[in-house]
């Protein structure tokens, strides 16, 4: 008969949930494939509002958010996530075509932990996710005034109140 220590050693590890919010289908599909192959439970969305709704529904450990999204940009998505105490443990990674220092500072001020410029090195992205998850960072909640002015199936539908 196995004792409790043995049971813990063989208990399956739950894959961290990741939400990808990216409006370019090819990039979204490539990121989803990479992360699913690495063992993550991946959900996708293609606009800011659907991304925010997906993050609220799925409550992922990590959300990878493009900055230049239709309808609601990535900064606004990050600020809404940071204003929601239920999402305080969600780690945010910004993906953007703008890699300047001003862009990095804007991402951090909005609540992102990491800023990555496109084209992103896929190996670096996967390592970054592993390191963030392993670091077990403290929860982050910001007031809405802070910062500058597919589980294999995509998330869909309008967001709850922004």
Global Rg? 16 Å
Shape, principal axes of CA atoms? globular
Average the pLDDT over all residues and give the rounded result.
83
How is the quaternary structure best described? single chain
Q: How many domains, in number, for the residues?
A: 1
Q: What is the CATH C level class, in words?
A: Alpha Beta
**Fraction of residues in helix:** 25-40%
Kindly report the spatial arrangement of strands forming the biggest sheet: 2-1-3-4-5
Please, how many helices? 6
DSSP, total strands: 5
- Pick out the low-confidence regions: 143-152, 157-162
Order of helices and strands: HEHEHEHEHEH
Helical/strand content category? alpha/beta
At the fold tier of CATH, the topology name is: Rossmann fold
Largest sheet: 5 strands, parallel
Strand content: 15-25%
Query: Which architecture would the CATH scheme give at its second level?
Result: 3-Layer(aba) Sandwich
Region (Disordered): 139-162
Organism: Schlesneria paludicola
GO biological process, one term: phosphorelay signal transduction system
Domain Response regulatory: 17-133
